[in-house]
């Protein structure tokens, strides 16, 4: 496992970290025993950074992480998120009173006095035009409730605006072989300001593992069933916003680029790590085997230039017209 500096925090985090959405819910039935084994495997593989949110199973993901942390002495940094428990996404909803309630619950779920990193959880775009909201986060830091804060965004423009606030330490954004626009301008700006970048949905919800087919079926409570077209939340969070059949064809084209013996999930993650502006990818893992597979990406050799160009070509011809300007 390799480690990269996370913004100006002083932390060095595993470049393959752990995304803890699926172990909370919205991905079909998950078994806490499997989730615990997945978390333990991550730590075994050298993961020291976990991304979660209060809404992932309404505390279930945070509580599983707290239980795992109790069994380990080494430093494990936990980034959580706040804001999605609001019944409606409005700027006014991100009030000191509401945030205090959300943070107190996360502190309790994570069994800690101070949250390592709190991210605003994809607030409305207008939130980034309200400096008082970031002033409020500064006060949570001063009060010792949170150590650092960052944002999780849907759009590149939100990311660019967020890093105008000097104490934003990290930006979480979708970045993968099917979502390349963040690399155009945002990465350079974030690097200039030493802001950490967490690449989320790195496997395009499992699509970039190469295991899905036209016959794959998803449970009613799996967002890959109920959010295909953005029915419950932003469509970009499911399969990275790419039409399922288009994505399957692009995956077949990528399959032809895999170096001998390299599984597609590892290839897709190594592709992300080719961008030095990225601090870490945070693949979701439901089982120990998935986590071991994903973590192995950290130690793969760099991908050749020709392979990087070929992935870009697949994106430009098949994916870009459908998604590039949307996020
Ligand atoms: N708004 C936000 O802030 C936001 C939104 C989305 C995600 N996130 C964060 O980003 C993290 C990652 O994104 P994500 O979980 O949505 O998507 P992802 O990492 O692209 O895909 C994860 C899913 O792919 C499958 N998978 C993972 N590794 C695999 C492997 N090696 N082989 C085969 N299948 C594998 C698993 O599902 P199956 O086994 O069921 O196929 C897993 O749940 C989340 O966990 C969360 O922490 C944040």
Descriptive overview:
With 327 residues, the protein is of the alpha/beta class. Helices cover 36% and strands 14% of the residues. The chain is built from eleven helices and ten strands. The chain has an eight-stranded parallel β-sheet with strand order 3-4-5-6-7-8-9-10, covered by helices on one side. The model has no long low-confidence stretch (mean pLDDT 97).
Tags for this model:
327 residues; alpha/beta; eight-stranded parallel beta sheet; two-stranded antiparallel ribbon; 10 strands; 14% strand; binds NADP nicotinamide-adenine-dinucleotide phosphate
Computed structural class: alpha/beta
Oligomer: single chain
Described by strand count, sense and barrel closure, the largest sheet is:
8 strands, parallel
Please provide the ordered H/E string of secondary-structure elements: EEEHEHEHEHEHEHEHHHEHH
Which strands sit side by side, in order, in the main sheet?
3-4-5-6-7-8-9-10
Give the helix/strand layout.
Elements: E1 3-5, E2 12-14, E3 18-19, H1 32-44, E4 49-51, H2 60-70, E5 77-82, H3 96-109, E6 115-121, H4 131-142, E7 146-152, H5 156-162, E8 168-174, H6 186-192, E9 196-200, H7 223-226, H8 244-255, H9 264-273, E10 280-281, H10 288-295, H11 305-323
Parallel strand pairs: 3-4, 4-5, 5-6, 6-7, 7-8, 8-9, 9-10
Antiparallel strand pairs: 1-2
The structure holds NADP nicotinamide-adenine-dinucleotide phosphate (NAP).
């Amino acid at each position: 496992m390799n480690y990269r500096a996370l913004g100006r925090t002083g932390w060095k985090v595993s470049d393959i970290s752990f995304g803890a959405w699926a172990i909370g819910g919205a991905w079909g039935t998950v078994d806490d025993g499997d989730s615990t084994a997945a978390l333990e495997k991550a730590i075994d593989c050298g993961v020291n950074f976990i991304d979660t949110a209060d809404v992932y199973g309404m505390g279930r993901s945070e509580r599983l992480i707290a239980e795992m942390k109790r069994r380990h002495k080494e430093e494990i940094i936990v980034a959580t998120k706040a804001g999605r428990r609001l019944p409606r996404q409005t700027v006014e909803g991100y009030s000191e009173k509401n945030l205090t309630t959300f943070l107190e619950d996360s502190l309790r779920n994570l069994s800690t006095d101070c949250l390592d990193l709190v991210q605003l959880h994809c607030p409305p775009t207008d939130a980034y035009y309200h400096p008082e909201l970031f002033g409020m986060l500064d006060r949570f830091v001063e009060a010792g409730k949170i150590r650092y804060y960052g944002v999780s965004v849907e759009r590149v423009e939100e990311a660019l605006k967020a890093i105008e606030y000097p104490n934003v330490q990290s930006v979480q954004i979708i970045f993968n072989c099917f979502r390349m626009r963040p690399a155009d301008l945002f990465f350079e700006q974030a690097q200039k300001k030493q802001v950490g970048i967490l690449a989320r949905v790195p496997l395009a919800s499992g699509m970039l593992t190469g295991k899905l087919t036209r016959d794959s079926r998803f449970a009613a409570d799996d967002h890959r069933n109920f959010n295909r077209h953005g029915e419950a939340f932003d469509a970009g969070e499911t399969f990275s916003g790419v039409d399922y059949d288009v994505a399957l064809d692009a995956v077949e084209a990528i399959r032809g680029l895999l170096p001998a013996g390299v599984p597609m999930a590892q290839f897709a993650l190594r592709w992300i790590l080719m961008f030095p502006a990225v601090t870490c990818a945070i693949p979701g893992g439901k089982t120990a085997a998935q986590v071991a597979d994903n973590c192995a990406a950290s130690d793969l050799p760099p991908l050749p230039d020709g392979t990087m160009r070929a992935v870009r070509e697949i994106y430009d011809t098949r994916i870009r017209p459908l998604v590039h300007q949307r996020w």
